[in-house]
Amino acid sequence: xxxxxxxxxxxxxLPEEALKIAADEMLCYQDTGMSVMEMSHRSAAYQAIIDAxxxxxxxxxxxxxxxxxxxxxxGATAQFDAVPLNLMKKGKADFVDxxxxxxxxxxxxxxxxxxxxxxxxxxxxxDRIPELDPSKFDPEADYFHITMNNTVAxxxxxxxxxxxxxxxxxxxxxxxxSEVFDVNDFGLIYAGAQKNMGPAGVAVxxxxxxxxxxxxxxxxxxxxxxxxYEKGSMLNTPPTYTIYMLKLVTDWVKRQGGVKEMQxxxxxxxxxxxxxxxxxxxxxxxxxxxxxxxxxxxxxxxDDEKEKKFIAEAKAAGLENLKGHRSxxxxxxxxxxxxxxxxxxxxxxxxxxxxxxNK
Length: 359
Ligand SMILES: *Cc1c(COP(=O)(O)O)cnc(C)c1O
Description:
With 359 residues, the protein is an alpha/beta fold. It has nine helices and 14 strands. Strand 6 (149-150) and strand 7 (155-156) form a beta hairpin.
């Protein structure tokens, strides 16, 4: 059996160590005589797993005491509805349209109130984070929504907007645990697990406690933050195995030296790839330099046939899932925490070889 370097944007590569522990524990978890998959979510053994998963996130991200951590179902997409349902008390929020997911968040929020798009880079196919003009921000908005890292386009925020006290809400699906940041800068953070934390099936929500509790009457119980908190994220059967995997992945991040060490590695990996792209005569980075993502590196050749050939030959060389998102074309290398430096080195070497052969 040979594992490939998997550059998928999500679900994405997981740390091999975490997968091996899961394999070892597959038939019998500790002394329970059963797999985690077969366990009651109300058992003491399972409670210890979900508690450890939460404690890992709290420790790794330095989550302050006045923030609650929830595990919710429906991925990040469910949060596009849950956030306005829980937070749009005055019926309006500001949005930055920095990519496919950011646009979707604004679109879904429109059902519940006014979703004011304060800036957009859609005209240039989201090749940058749009310039923000604070005079367009609504000081009365319930919250201000950004997508910290744009998974499809390959950009990210390097500077947070100054929202003058309006709670900042961020979709961090492809950013969480990739670098150090201060949770205090945000009112609410949410992230689907399948980019940087584990398999698909759960979203992590980190919410400041004063923002909980005043949701719209129509809010489905499963989307209600306060009830989810009161029930310890077990309002109904949670995705038990996914949360167990998230625990194993966050255990691994801790063993590696925490988020600070992840950031060091991520900067090193991204620099290697971007340096090559900047010097290449064949490949070109797709987004403006100042807004480049460390997690999703998008690039083009600008010739459909050559791009197809590149993706096929890379796959044959054990470099998988380099095709860009269907809405954007070109190529995308997602280099989340679990992608080792060796994987990025192998990709750059392959690109150099391809460039020589396809001048
Ligand atoms: C992947 C992704 C989503 C969608 O996640 P689902 O879990 O499939 O709902 C939303 N936002 C961002 C930034 C993403 O990367």
